[in-house]
TrEMBL record:
One of its GO terms (biological process) is acetoin catabolic process. Residues 22-315 form the Histone deacetylase domain. One of its GO terms (molecular function) is histone deacetylase activity. Pathway: Ketone degradation; acetoin degradation. Coiled coil: none annotated. Keywords: Acetoin catabolism, Hydrolase. It comes from the Bacteria. This is Acetoin utilization protein AcuC. Belongs to the histone deacetylase family. InterPro entries: AcuC (IPR003085), HDAC_I/II (IPR003084), HDACs (IPR000286), His_deacetylse_dom (IPR023801), His_deacetylse_dom_sf (IPR037138), Ureohydrolase_dom_sf (IPR023696).
Length: 389
């Protein structure tokens, strides 16, 4: 029987626009939903419109003074601090309302799973993983990922795995649960020496009772499909099989792509599609099929994010799209009116995402694999040097 899947969406998500020229442009969401609809991925799917997260919901993760600052910032000409009013996090009208709506979307997705209306649920507008308890960071005002996880914990969940495949370290979620063994955070990201926020080292593995439950895989710049997937499969499946989460939460940023202007990994659309399929398989094998899917970064607004996240939606819905499928002519015409960039013609970059599993053959990415395995695997009774673990 096909998994029951809920898709959370409202055009009001497009109101989260930090500024007219900010890299995190909501046009990427609009174009994704248009493309998914044009390819029939959403046929017969009744999307769920969320409400804003309440203060009670947000205060599971954020401190009261920060909520006050977010609300008042658009009306305070001299600034309010808390990371607001920077180039990364400019102040905009109705900032609290737009940010709380995204958090409400991720909460609704979590609630669909917790209340047994869905096995899988997706909020592409979510994934704002950098926001901290008391400050905005990295284009993120409220940390919807952490808000949803904290709500699930309050419902009685005891083991939640969070896997972050964004090019940037999932620092805000890691910080929220750094000493909590109920939440395993796993982040695959570009090496912190070479990319903001400069965190996410293998030695950041949690503290106190949470030691071993923060996992970081820092990948060298230039890592492509084969190296990324080699590292993922050398680290993540063994840990999730050991942890046996009750729900898998994934942040699926598309900024690992070679076209992304803000980072330096070299993945293709085909590699990203392979990642989403691997996450789906892990949800089925390790989490009883319970899969909460969030968006994240992605700044190639026209060429990459719509195709990548349409593959993501299709994967979540078990309506996998043939990579050779041509893009709908009306989508191409609409998008061409928004950009001078040359547009792709199909749902593939024409790349082969196959990889050699970690083992005897040495690869460039193996330093990252070994550092992470040696930092974390022994804490879970796994042998860091044995490819069978």
């Amino acid at each position: 029987m096909s998994p029951r899947t809920s898709v959370v969406w409202t055009p009001e998500f497009l109101s989260y626009q930090l500024s007219d020229d900010h890299p995190l442009n909501p046009v990427r969401l609009d174009l994704t939903m248009r493309l998914a609809a044009g390819l029939g991925v959403l046929d017969g799917v009744e999307v769920l419109a969320p409400e804003q997260a309440s203060d009670e919901d947000l205060l599971r993760v954020h401190v009261p003074s920060y909520l006050t600052a977010v609300r008042s910032a658009p009306h305070e000409p001299f600034g309010v601090g808390h990371g607001l009013g920077t180039d990364d996090n400019p102040i905009f009208l109705d900032m609290h309302e737009a940010s709380a709506l995204i958090a409400g979307g991720s909460l609704l997705a979590a609630r669909e799973i917790a209340e047994d209306r869905a096995d899988r649920a997706v909020n592409l507008a979510g994934g704002l993983h950098h926001a901290m308890a008391d400050r905005a960071a990295g284009f993120c005002v409220y940390n919807d990922c952490s808000v949803a996880i904290a709500w699930l914990l309050e419902q009685g969940y005891e083991r939640i795995a969070y896997v972050d495949v964004d090019v940037h370290h999932g620092d805000g979620v890691q910080a929220a649960f750094y000493d909590d063994p109920r939440v395993m955070t796993v982040s695959m990201h570009q090496h912190p020496l070479t990319l903001w926020p400069g965190t996410g080292w293998p030695g950041e593995y949690g503290k106190g009772d949470g030691a071993g439950y923060a996992v970081n895989v820092p990948l060298p710049p230039g890592t492509g499909d084969a190296g990324w997937l080699r590292a993922f499969h050398a680290v993540v499946p063994s840990l999730l099989e050991s942890f046996r989460p009750q729900v898998l939460v994934t942040e699926c940023g598309a900024d690992t792509h070679s076209d992304d202007p803000l980072a330096n990994l070299e993945l293709s659309i085909d590699g990203q599609r392979a990642i989403y399929r691997s996450l789906r398989d892990l949800a089925e094998r390790t989490a009883g099929g319970k899969w909460l899917v969030l968006g994240g970064g992605g700044y190639s607004l026209f060429r990459v994010v719509p195709r990548s996240w349409t593959h993501l939606l299709a994967t979540v819905l078990d309506r996998d799209v043939d990579p050779a499928r041509p893009l709908p002519a009306d989508w191409v015409a609409h998008t061409a009116g928004l950009t001078r960039e040359p547009l792709p013609t199909s749902m593939t970059d024409g790349k082969d995402p196959s990889f050699v599993p970690w083992g005897d053959v040495a690869e460039r990415v193996d330093t990252a694999i070994l550092e992470t395995r040696r930092a974390v695997f022994p804490l879970h009774g796994l042998d860091p040097d044995d490819p069978r673990d």
